[in-house]
Amino acid sequence: LVPLYASTLLPNFRILQYSGDADPCVPYIGTERWISSLNLPVATPWKPWSVPDQGVAGYSTVYNVPNSSQKFTFATVRAYCGTIYIIIRAWTMYVMLHGSSTFKHLPLLK
To answer: What per-residue confidence (pLDDT) applies to 87?
Structure first.
């Protein structure tokens, strides 16, 4: 499945893969291992991203997709642990998807 993902989706779409840093069911370390298996070169190393007036909201890494202008972004969301977080911390999720001055490699929804 990884080769199909790498050859079909990565070159054709800008992708954001996010994981909660407190999710016991799908730990972000597992997501990082999966991303490592894609062998993508790092464009922007692991760095914090923040929400205005709320501080650090997580960390992100941006990867280049070989032979494509697309980017692959992996982000963690601080204290995220399931779907209910989207409702409780809607502003954090909005900033992650629409971008902010500290998360410039997004927005995905513009």
So the answer is: 60
Tokens at 78, concatenated: 């601080």
Beta bridge partners of 50: 56
pTM confidence score? 0.76
Which CA distances in Å does 97 have to 2, 17, 36, 75? Answer: 25, 11, 23, 11
Tokens 């760095």 belong to residue: 47
**Do 19 and 39 meet the contact criterion of CB atoms below 8 Å apart?**
no
Which H or E run includes 16? strand 15-20
Residues 84 and 71: their CA atoms lie apart, in Å, by 28
| 3-state DSSP assignment of residue 25 | coil
Tokens of residue 22, six digits:
């407190």
Whole-angstrom CA distances from 4 to 10, 34, 72 are 9, 14, 15
Q: Apex CA 37: angle with CA 76 and CA 59, to 5°?
A: 15
Q: For the segment 35-90, what is each residue's pLDDT rounded down to a tens digit?
A: 999 999 999 999 888 777 777 888 889 999 999 998 899 988 877 655 555 566 66
